[in-house]
Amino acid sequence: MKRRQFLKTGGVVAVCACTGSTLSACKMLSGISDTPVAPLASYRASATDVVVDLAKVPTLKTVGGSVKIEINDKKYNPLKLLVVRVGDREYKAFLDKCTHGEREMEYAADKKTLTCVSFGHSRFDDGGKVLDGPAEKPLRLFPVKVANDEIIISV
Length: 155
Ligand code: FES
Prior knowledge:
The chain has about 160 residues and is an alpha+beta fold. Helix content is about 15%, strand content about 35%. The protein folds into two domains: about 1-30; about 35-155, Rieske Iron-sulfur Protein, CATH 2.102.10.10. A four-stranded antiparallel beta sheet has the order 1-2-12-11, with no helix packed on it. A four-stranded antiparallel beta sheet has the order 3-4-5-10, with no helix packed on it. Strands 6-7-8-9 form a four-stranded antiparallel beta sheet, with no helix packed on it. It starts with a helix and ends with a strand. FE2/S2 (inorganic) cluster (FES) binds near residues 98, 100 and 101.
């Protein structure tokens, strides 16, 4: 069991034990994203761009898929992105920080919305606009270009 999975499971069990909640209700309390993280070999970062090799990111092979990318260097400190495939050849890259309290976001393909994993559960449309607070500001979107089998995210 990976650390993240252990923490998630352990946290959920602990909260559920204390409150007597059902597991599905408790999942909403865990505050940890289920979105997969892109393999390190699938992207590279320069001073201005993050380039993602789509062939190496399985979850972006289907419309509605999403993935997390974290660039850890001094310039970005770190830069956390949530990349979503919203169309055949259309991708969006969001700063993976809720504008309420900087928690992680998750994309729901069926609703085309992004939801914060925190207790507040702020919701945004796939343009980053706030649908439900407590967040008041839109999510930050980065320009994305598609070139052959890569996407280029301007950061
Ligand atoms: S951090 Fe997202 S709703 Fe509070």
